[in-house]
């Protein structure tokens, strides 16, 4: 299993495109500098009236398939 940590800050307006399904994936730079892309649908549960803001952990299996995304702070 692989774990990646990153910060994500999006305004509510920026999240709207993800939330409505207009954009299919999100690309972030994890703490080690590696670019990671994952399906935007995974952030929907973290969207609030101010958007998304926080530190996250992304877990992938050994084949780079999604396991979990969780907010850690």
Alpha-carbon distance between the termini?
A: 21 Å
Low-confidence stretches: none
**How much helicity do the residues have?**
10-25%
Structural class: mainly beta
Quick structural summary:
By secondary structure, the protein is mainly β.
Write structural notes for this entry.
- This protein is mainly β and 73 residues long.
- It is globular, with a radius of gyration of 12 Å.
- The chain is built from one helix and five strands.
- It has one helix at 12-19, and strands spanning 2-10, 25-29, 35-39, 52-60, 66-71.
Write the layout of secondary structure elements.
Blueprint: E1 2-10, H1 12-19, E2 25-29, E3 35-39, E4 52-60, E5 66-71
Antiparallel strand pairs: 1-4, 2-3, 4-5
Keywords:
two-stranded antiparallel sheet; 5 strands; 11% helix; 73 residues; mainly beta; three-stranded antiparallel β-sheet
